[in-house]
Amino acid sequence: MQKDIPAVCLRHDGLGLTDPRETAKTEYEHSTQITDKLTAKIYTQKVDLDYNPSDQLYTKHTKNRIRQEKNAKCQNSCDELLEELTPESQQLIKGAVEKWAASWLSTLLIKAIGYALNKQEFMDAICMRYGWKEKAYPPTVLVEGETLWITASCKLGGYTKMRHNSVRDSEAQIMREVCRDVQIELTLLPINENDYERKVNTTDNASLDISVRGL
Question: If pLDDT is split at 50, 70 and 90, which confidence band does 141 have?
Answer without folding.
Answer: very low
